[in-house]
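Notes to self after the Tuesday call (sharing in case useful).
The group wants a holo model before anyone commits to mutagenesis around the pocket. I volunteered. Ligand is magnesium ion. Logging inputs and output together so the record is complete.
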Amino acid sequence: MKKTMINKCLKKSLPFLIIFSFFIGISYGQEKTPESTEIWEPQPRTVEPGEGNQPPSDAIVLFDGSDLSKWEHQDGSPAEWNVHEGMVTVEPGTGMIFTKQEFGDIQLHIEFKTPADDHDEGQGKGNSGVFLQGRYEIQVLDSDENKTYSNGQAGSIYKDHIPLVNASRKAGEWQSYDIIYQAPRFNDEGRVIIPAQITVLHNGVVIHNRVNIQGNTSYIGAHQYEEHELKEPLGLQDHGDLVSYRNIWVREL
Ligand code: MG
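Result:
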């Protein structure tokens, strides 16, 4: 009985289905124009790229060569590193400095210089580091003819990823890191569900291409994630060497 009803309904609606399909076909055909795939709104907002080495107009400038007002030590005391000649140099023994502002997903530009007169070797030569979220280190080191373990050389995500190439300049010369970073995401139980992802250019050369960070940087043992906030301060390492920084800015993504 039910089957007969369904058959009757189908027979009745069949002509309408045919006509409907015909019109869908026509309108689908009409969509195949250049204009049908053009998107005019919304328009991306305008950003003025910086002149020469200057930051873009929407960047948050963290250090412009004049002072460390955007930075502090871990205990919240004023950053005691040495600001001079448009740069800031590690003041050994004072400890890491951190931004007062917290960041999650960012584009970061930072320039650094390892000391030309450092005659130490390996990890002792021009060591510092850029700590994303205060915990994931991009190594700063003099890696120009200074062999050390590959996952600890300049540009490595320390003991986590070896850089694709060694794009280091000589000690005493200014170098840059341009970093595109996505913070990790955690679930309600505190387990990482999307690891941190990073792309790094060293002096304009890609050295990490969208690699996943494996966990908190540590000197000893496998790296593991610890649940943390989406936004955390950016840190620079005091490793006892007179490494200098300048022109530090971020764009929040
Ligand atoms: Mg370091």
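Two things stood out.
The CA atoms of residues 126 and 241 lie 6 Å apart.
The pocket of magnesium ion is lined by residues 127-129, 137, 139-140, 237, 239 (CB under 6 Å).
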